[in-house]
Amino acid sequence: MRKAFIPPNPPNPVNYSDSLKNPLEYFEKYISNDFFASVSTLTNMREVSVTGHSLETSATEIKKLFGCTMLIGIYALPRLRMFWAQNTRVPIVSDNITRNRFFKLRSRLKVVDDNMISAEEKSHDRFWKVRPLLDSIQRGCRMNERSPMVSIDEQMIPFAGQVLMKQFVRDFYLYEGKGSSVESALLATPEKLDVGGRMVLKLTDTLPLGVFVFTDRYFTSIPLIDFLFSRKVFLAGTIMANRIPKNAGISSDNDLKKKKRGSYDQLVRDDGKISLVKWFDNKPVNLASSCMGVEPEGSCRRWSKSERKYIDIKQPAIVKNYNAFMGGVDLLDRVIGKYSMRNRTNKWTIRTIFHFIDFSVAAGWLEYRENAKAAGLPRKEIMDFLDFKLSIAKSLILENQGEDDMEFEAEDDEQPGSKRRSVQPIPDKRCRRQGNIHLMEFMKDKQKSRSKCRLPNCNKLTFAKCKACGIYLCCSVERNCFATFHQ
Question: Which intervals hold domain PiggyBac transposable element-derived protein (predicted)?
Answer without folding.
Answer: 22-170
